[in-house]
C-alpha cells in the first residue's frame, strides 16, 4: 500500500499509487475524473464532500484495488449489505465466509460453533448490541443495523477497513466511541464521513471531493476552515 506524493502530502512516496489518473464511474459514465489516490500503511483517510460528490464511487475503486493486491479488506457498504431474515449473529459471521468452504459455512449457519458465537458476542458487546445477538436484522433500528455491519467488519478483521458512512445512523456519543474502536482495530482505513469534526479527530488525512474531482488531499492538520467551506459551498 505504498503511495505517491499527492497535493499537500508531507511524505515522499515513490511506488505507483493505488489509483492513478483514473476516471471512475458506473456503466461507462464517469462520476470522478482523473483521480489519483493511495493509502499507505498506518494512514486513516476520511473522505469528505456533499452527497453525490463521488465518495462511494471512490471507495468502490479503492476496495477493488486493495483486493486485487491481495489485501484482506473489511468492508462496510453504505447499504450495510445485511440479510434481514438472518440474526445479528449470522450476519456478523458472514464476515469470514470466504475463509472457509461451502460445507463449513453451511454448518456454521445451521449451528454456529461455540467459539464463533463467543467471538461475535464479544464484538457485539463492544458495539452495544449484545442483547440483540439472536434477533433478526430486519427487526432492528437503523442504528442497530449499522452497528451490525460494523460488527461484521470487526469479526472479519484484516489489513484495511473500507467503510462508507459507517457512523451516520448513530448518535454523536456512540459515533465517537465506535470511531475509536475502528481506529484501534484497523490502523489503516479509508472511510467516508459526514461529520467533519469527527473526521478531523479520527483521521490522519482528509480528502475532499466536489463535483467529480478531488478538491484537496492533505494531512488533517493542513486542512483549515477555508478548505472545508470551499468543499460544501453552494
UniProtKB/TrEMBL annotation:
GO terms for cellular component: plasma membrane. PROSITE patterns: ABC_TRANSPORTER_2. Residues 12-233 form the ABC transporter domain. SUPFAM superfamilies: P-loop containing nucleoside triphosphate hydrolases (SSF52540). The keyword Nucleotide-binding applies. It holds the Pfam family ABC_tran. InterPro entries: AAA+_ATPase, ABC_transporter-like_ATP-bd, ABC_transpr_LolD-like, P-loop_NTPase. Keywords: ATP-binding, Nucleotide-binding. One of its GO terms (molecular function) is transmembrane transporter activity. This is Phosphonate transport system ATP-binding protein. It comes from Paracoccus sanguinis.
